[in-house]
Automatic annotation (TrEMBL):
PROSITE patterns: HTH_RRF2_2. One of its GO terms (cellular component) is cytosol. This is Rrf2 family protein. InterPro entries: Tscrpt_reg_Rrf2, WH-like_DNA-bd_sf, WH_DNA-bd_sf. It comes from Devosia lucknowensis. One of its GO terms (molecular function) is DNA-binding transcription factor activity. Pfam families: Rrf2.
């Protein structure tokens, strides 16, 4: 089963963006997510539209935070990514005549709804600055330094 790692990857990128005061290119940031620049740009589009990051094309362009990490919550990022699925558990057959299967479906959906509500409430209370380790390493661990041209 494929796991959706967009939330984890984007949080990683945002924390690194919080460490710099210059724009970083899609190429550099895509490398931190283990993907390619076009996929990176598509993934970040919702965050740009929500006003959490900015991007500029061309020489000297790149991605920057539009707000401090202290003003962005896990919930904000989750919503900007179009609410990726939190759980991989699903009902086998939503429309069924079987009373047993309907009871199973109800138990699963009710439990998942409660778990998701707990996740989202927790996400609302965590700002990205709270995730930053005190001795966080910069992007140098992910990519070669960009030479000055």
């Amino acid at each position: 089963m494929n796991k959706d790692t967009r939330l984890s990857g984007v949080l990683h990128v945002l924390l690194h963006l919080g460490q710099v005061s210059v724009p970083l290119t899609s190429e550099v940031l895509a490398n931190t997510m283990g993907t390619n620049p076009p996929v990176f740009r598509r993934t970040m589009a919702g965050l740009r539209e929500a006003g959490y990051v900015t991007s500029e094309k061309g020489h000297g362009g790149g991605w920057m935070l539009a707000r401090p990490l202290s003003e962005i919550t896990l919930h904000d990022v989750y919503v900007a990514l179009d609410r990726p699925g939190l759980f991989a558990i699903a009902s086998r057959n939503e429309e069924t005549e079987c009373k047993v299967e309907r009871a199973v479906n109800h138990a699963l959906s009710d439990t998942m709804a409660k778990a998701e509500a707990l996740f989202l409430e927790t996400f609302r209370g965590i700002t990205l600055d709270q995730l930053m380790p005190e001795s966080a390493q910069g992007l140098g661990i992910h990519c070669k330094p960009v030479s000055a041209a």
